[in-house]
Here is the input.
Amino acid sequence: MVANRQDAWTEEDDLLLAETVLRHIREGSTQLAAFEEVGEKMGRTAAACGFRWNSTVRKSYKEAIALAKIQRQKLKKSRVTIRRTFSLSDQEDETLADLNMEAVIRFLKDQKAVLQELTKKAHQLEGELKEKEREIGRLTEENKKMKEEYSSAKTVNDDYKTLLQIMERARKMVVLGEGQEETPVFKMDRNGNLERVL
Here is the structure.
């Protein structure tokens, strides 16, 4: 395309040039591509646009350029994140603009399947937890009963030992004739156990 020469740059021309260059910087494109785009729109050469940018317009947009570069870095990081999220390979090399609905739908379906699997596993674990809680309750009750039985058996065992001791003393008294002068005296304690007093 043959470019028509225009003698003066208007404020609108400078603004269009600045906006286009800043957009290209943010998107990770080159300034040369921006100059070519503006040149086509304005009927100027890319070289003329580049000269105008470097000689005049750029000086007024230093902060905006710095901000556009920061935004470019953020965009670059988000693209990497999206590539990882959608499991895109280096060969696919999709950018945000190229990311199509099929990839989004595929990702969402995968996430739905993962969610369904996790929900199923959570319900299964909740059921297992309730079963374990019931088992703990049953074992706690069984433990309580066994402690009561043990306490009762211990009392019976103690009574049995005392009875054996009494019988052994009685046997010795009868066989050996011991204790004829001294007759042992027993009393019953509050649990029903016999205790020797004398």
In short: The first strand starts at residue 186 and ends at 188. The two ends are 134 Å apart (CA to CA). The helical segments are 11-26, 31-42, 46-60, 62-85, 101-176.
